[in-house]
Request: fold
Amino acid sequence: GELDKAILDYNKAIELDPADAGAYSNRGLAYADQGELDKAILDYNKAIELDPQMAVAYNNRGLAYDEQGKLDKAIVDYNKAIELDPQMAVAYSNRGEAYRNHGELDKAILDYNKAIELDPANAVAYYSRGGVYYQQGELEKAIVDFTKAIELDPAYAWAYYYRGIVFEKLGGVVQAEADYAKAKELGYEPE
Reply:
């Protein structure tokens, strides 16, 4: 498919210029999208070796480690990405997710706050922070964040679904049913 074609294109680019850190980083993304995380990590390693200042390669390697469940390694990479590019909102958001998965909810909130400060249109950061608020029992704050995520991305099925859960917990059965229906219409099916 498209990813295979992209990988072939990056192979050619690397063949033409073996010092092209961007080509390695981009091929790593394509491998990651195919679920070939070990190959992706090797490419991110090479990109970082060629360009140690490439924040995006650290961020993307962090994502790959995250998917492998190597949260400590992921956090180290997100830290480096943020050190190299303190304006990289997605690195804060990703690190927040890693902290959340690590059970460090307060640190997760701080990172989501920073991601939102840097990129106020980041629906995923609002959704994720809403999820942490839900975990902490801060249901009103969770609804505010899920609602903001939906405003920013009206097709965000997960945000509708989880806002529905919160409405249901607060006794808002009508709103909950409306959100569940909207989530289903947008393709979200709970497991």
